[in-house]
Amino acid sequence: MDADEPVVGEVVTAGPWIVWTGRRGSAPVEYRRARAIDLKGRLLLPAFSDAHTHFMQFAHSLRSIDLDGVTTIKEALRRIGQHATVRNGRSGWITGQGLDLNSWKDRRPTRHELDRVVPKRPAAFFTHDQHALLVNSAALRLAGIGRESIDPAGGRIERDAGGDPTGFLFETAYRLVWDRIPQPSPLEAERLILEAQVKAHEVGVAAIADMGEPGTLRAFAGLQEKGKLKVRLWKSVALKDLDSAIAVGLRSGVGDRWIKIGAVKIFLDGALGSQTAWTYKPYAGNRSNYGICRMERADFDAAVRRAAAHGLSVCVHAIGDAAVGQAIEVLRKHESRFPRCQPPRIEHLQLIDPRDVSKLVRSRIIASMQPSHLLTDRDYADRHWGQRASNAFRFRTLWDRGVIMAFGSDVPIERLAPLEGIGAAIYRCRARDRRGAWYPGQRLSVWGAVWGFTVGAAIASGDTGTRGKIAPGYLADMVVLDRNIFTVKPTDIFQTQVAMTFVDGEYAYGV
Ligand SMILES: [Zn+2]
Predict the structure, then answer these.
(1) Do 412 and 372 form a contact (C-beta atoms < 8 A)?
(2) pLDDT of 238 strictly over 50
(3) Given 41, 74, 83, 273, which residue has the most CB atoms within 10 angstroms?
(4) In contact, 388 and 350? CB cutoff 8 Å
(5) Distance 49 CA to ligand 1 centre (A)
(6) 63 CA to middle of ligand 1, Å?
C-alpha cells in the first residue's frame, strides 16, 4: 500500500518492525541468515485494521443467541427457547442480537411471546442495528419499567393500545434495561477478549478501534500485562466521561503501540433501520419523521470545543444527512484545535448531501465508514430515503475528492470480516444478489477498498507512518491471502480466505 512502490517481492522484518523491502532475492547480505518464509506467490498485504468495532460486545456475541437471518416470530422463539434450555443455569440473563425488524414476514414479537419461552429469567435482544432492544417481562420488572414510566430523553418505551409496554425499547430507553445486566468479572472479560482475538486473527485483523464500553480497555490492558495481547487497540472515551478524562489529564494518542487512548465519542443521531437517523427531509413512509437529533447544536459545539481544548479528539456518530452536515460544520469550526496526529472523525457517514461533500473535502475530518453495512442497508435506504439513497455510502465520490476514508465493520452489527467489507466497497452488493451493484457509480477500486482497511484506518487512529503499509519503519503486521484480490473477479473477493496473519513480527494465525 505504498503508492511510491506498490509491489515488492521480499520483505525483511526484525522484532516488531519491517526493516527492508525490495525485489525478490535482492535483500542485503546481512539479512541472508534470517529465517525465510516462501509465500509461493501468494498476496501479502498489510494486516487489516477495523476502524469501528464494539469489541467487548463482539466477544459477548460469540456466546449469545444470534438471530441474524431469522424472519418469523416462530423461528426466533424456537432459537431463543432452545438456547435457554441448553444453558440450564437457573439464573442470569439471556441475551442475543440480530433481530431484524425490517425483514419480518409477520408482525413484531412482543414481550408476552418472549415470556412463553423465557418466563423467569430476564432476557434482552438487540435489533440488528443495535438501536432498539426487545425484552421480556422479567427484564422490564428488574428495570422498574411499567405503565407509568416516562420515556427518557432521546428514547421511547413502545406501548400497546392499552398503554402497556410491548417490550420494545428504542434508543436511550434500552439503557434502562441494558445497564442492569451485570458486567463480567475482569478475568472473565479477559477470557472473552482472548476468544475474540483469535477470531480477529482468522480474518487478518491486527488492530481495532473500539467504540464500546470502558471494559474493553481494562481487558486489553490486563492481557497486555500477561503478555497475551496480540491485537492493537485504539479506545474511544464516552462523552459522559469527558470531565473525568480531563481531570486525570488523559489525551488522545496517550499509550503505546498496543493500546492508545482515542477520541471522545459523541452521538448526533440514531440509525437507518429504526428510522431514527436525522435527515434534512422526512422519511419516505412518514412525512412527519426526520429521525432523532440526539444532541442540540449548542451542546454539541460546547462538547467538541471542551474536548479539543484539552487535547482530546472527537469521533461523531452521524448517519442521516442532517447529522452528517452538522458534524462537518462543527468539526471544521474547531479543526485547528484537535491534536496534530489525532484527526476528528465522523462515524458511519451513511447519507451525505452533495453540498456537504464539498465542505468535507479539504478538511482534516476522517470519514469512518463501514462498507458491509450497505449489503443489508440498501433495501432500507431505498425504502426510507427513496431517491436520496443515491447519496448513501458514496465511496467513489469521497475517494475521488481526496477524503480520507477509514473502513470498519461495526462488529457485532456486521461481521468482523474485512474481506467482506472490501467486497462490499468494490461490488456494492452481496455476491449472490441478482439485482447487481447498488448505485454502481459509487463502486470503489480494490486499491481504494484495501487502503480504507489499512492506511486509512491507521491514519484514523493516529498511526500515520507506523501502520498500514509494508515499508521499512512500519510495524510488521501483515496478512497472506489465498488469492490475489487485485486480479480475481469481484464476487471471488467474498470467498477469499486469510492464509496467515502476522502481528508485531510474529505468527498469529496460519501455518
Ligand atoms: Zn458502532
Answers:
(1) no
(2) yes
(3) 273
(4) no
(5) 15
(6) 20
pLDDT per position as a tens digit, 95-152: 998 888 776 766 788 899 999 999 999 999 998 888 899 999 999 999 999 999 999 9
Q: Report CA(148)–ligand 1 centroid distance (Å).
A: 32
Nearest to 36 by CA among 65, 9, 73: 9
Other CB atoms within 10 Å distance of the CB of residue 213: 18
Which whole-number Å values give the CA distances from 340 to 315, 325, 364, 461, in the listed order? 15, 23, 10, 12
* CATH class of the 57-178 domain in this structure: alpha beta
End-to-end CA gap in the chain: 24
CB neighbours of 453 closer than 8 A, spacing ≥ 6?
A: 48, 49, 50, 51, 407, 408, 418, 421, 422
The pTM of this model reads: 0.87
* 440: preceding bond cis by omega (within 30 degrees): no
Q: Which amino acid is at 167?
A: G
Q: Return the closest-CA partner of residue 262 out of 209, 303, 317, 201.
A: 209
CA of residue 375 to ligand 1 center, whole Å: 16
- The residues spanned by each domain of the chain are 49-56+185-503, 57-178
Q: Give the count of alpha carbons within 13 A of 114, CB side only.
A: 25
Residue 54 CA, ligand 1 centroid: distance in Å: 6
Q: What is the 197 CA–ligand 1 centroid distance (Å)? A: 18
Residue 230 Cα to ligand 1 middle (Å):
22
CA of 38 to the centre of ligand 1 (A): 39
Cα 141 to middle of ligand 1, angstroms: 28
**Close Cβ partners of 355 (under 8 Å, ≥ 6 residues apart):** none
Q: How far is the CA of 52 from the centre of ligand 1 (A)?
A: 6
CATH number of 49-56+185-503: 3.20.20.140
User: What single DSSP character describes residue 14?
Assistant: E
Q: How far, in Å, is the centroid of ligand 1 from the Cα of 17?
A: 31
- The alpha carbon of 410 and the centre of ligand 1 are apart by a number of angstroms equal to 5
Q: Distance from CA of residue 441 to its chain's centroid?
A: 25
Distance 152 CA to ligand 1 centre (A): 21
The CA distance from 268 to 493, in Å, is 34
CA of 309 to the centre of ligand 1 (A): 25
